Amino acid sequence: MILDKNYYLDIFQVRMEDMQDLVAAALSNGGDYSDLYFENTMNQVHQLMDGKVSSGGLNIDFGVGIRVLCGEKTGYAYSESTRPSDMKAAAVAASAIASGTASGPVTPRDTRSTGATYTSQASNGGRLVRRLFPGMPNPAADRYPVMNGWKDISPSVSVEWLYRLEDGIKKRDSRITTVACSLSSQTSDYLMYNSFGELKYETRPMTTLQANMVAEQNGKKISRNASRSFRKGAEMLTETLINELIESLVKNLDAAFEAERPKGGEMAVVMGAGASGILLHEAMGHAFEADFNRKGQSIFSDKMGTRVCAQGINIVDDATIKGNRGSLNFDDEGVPGQRTMMVEDGILTSYLHDRISARFFGVAPTGNGRRDTFRSSPIPRMRATYMESGNASPESIIASVPNGIYVDEFSNGQVRIGEGDFTFYVKSGFIIENGKLTKPVKDINVTGNGPQALQDIVAVGNDCRIDDSAWICGKGQSVPVSCGMPTVLVRKLLVGGE
């Protein structure tokens, strides 16, 4: 949602002249570039446990982060107050850190009164940032317009939807014994300004509905969770969404009670469409982030312009999907969000760049500079990462496998960026025998190497699906993302079982 400029200036109680003065103070000890990042976030959370409201709360986070780039050094400071004196102190501190004139971390004399904190950031790669994006925010191009904002809605509305969800889950299957539901509604106002005179502002919504359940049968217990999260307001809540969540929770519940741990070994693996995209995100996507490649830490650092997988395979990181959890009008450096082709027809064509890495590689930023809050400096992060559809039908892919395994939900993944090795725990799947799904499986790990797994993809389905669950990506900071995949056949991976 993009409101009038004065709305944001009033929230943060600043004017253009104030921001120009702050940038000047930030560059007072020299430097190539400085930017300001104002944030005002309101987050409401309500939880329901077995028919009772178990908790509810409202959190407001407010402040400004100030960054200075000076050669190879980055100075960063933030203030939880936008009083002129507090912001000026933070700007001077960031300047001193970046220029090297600060002897150590700078601490304000009285943090209780100033609300300011100053921290030195890693200094590898802070170079001059080119002026590329002077345009003003365009409401007509907004990727997350809000029809029903949360700021004007009573908490009783949230609780009513949670009761509907809980009731629908319990009625769906008599084996369900415990249900917990939660609804998070977040509204974040942002104002950004930099030393190039670029001004950006917007309001980002986020609504997340989540449910957890426990089902019991003959002494066995099955725990499941499901969620849906979008950059939308209260209009996201519909009966259709409630029913979708319920179906996701009870899908293949009979099979889950019958599931056993299979015999392990190296075998063909079919990844189901949708949530399998988390493997693409972790095992490949992080290795495409430009800071890892700039520092030579990624297995893909020397592979730009080379073939990394078969022809016809396209891997995308996308900020342009309307209402998507990972979408952005512009990133946390004020760079417009875009659709970035990381792998095109099997060739690695782009890393994911913030302004610093883009300058280092001599390319344009891709709009991937993201941060957790105003307390953090931006770094390259993913948005919505997925593989585009291919030509094969999911049925034909499964039918082509004489012996293997089908998996469609992952969790608890571990990835080593430098080597590209990954291990993921599989929440659900089936054995494939003679081209057919047979016995359900549980408690297995899938292990492989990212670059090798890419090369071993031998079939891509025509059913790409973005999974709209509440994915959170951690990289020292947490940001909302989404992921997706079509059905994909990997020639061989190591499956841990009996």
Can you walk me through this structure?
With 498 residues, this protein is an alpha+beta fold. Strand 16 and strand 17 form a beta hairpin. Helix 2 runs parallel beside helix 3 and helix 5 packs across helix 6. The longest helix has 18 residues. The radius of gyration is 24 Å and the shape is globular.
DSSP helix fraction: 10-25%
Strands across the major sheet, in which order?
Answer: 4-3-2-1-5-6-7
Q: What is the strand tally?
A: 24
Overall SS class: alpha+beta
Q: What would the average pLDDT be, to the nearest integer?
A: 90
Q: Work out the strand percent.
A: 35-45%
Sum this structure up briefly.
Helices cover 22% and strands 38% of the residues. With 498 residues, the protein is an alpha+beta fold.
Task: Break the fold down into its secondary structure elements and pairings.
Layout: H1 5-12, H2 16-26, E1 33-49, E2 52-70, E3 73-79, H3 84-99, H4 111-114, E4 116-120, H5 155-172, E5 176-194, E6 199-217, E7 220-230, H6 239-250, H7 253-258, E8 265-271, H8 277-285, H9 290-294, E9 315-318, E10 339-344, E11 347-348, H10 355-361, E12 369-370, E13 379-380, E14 384-387, H11 394-399, E15 403-416, E16 421-433, E17 436-441, E18 444-449, H12 450-455, E19 457-460, E20 465-467, E21 472-474, E22 478-480, E23 482-485, E24 488-496
Parallel strand pairs: 8-15, 14-23
Antiparallel strand pairs: 1-2, 1-5, 2-3, 3-4, 5-6, 6-7, 8-24, 9-10, 9-14, 10-11, 12-13, 15-16, 16-17, 16-18, 18-24, 19-24, 20-23, 21-22
Helix pairs in contact: 2-3, 5-6
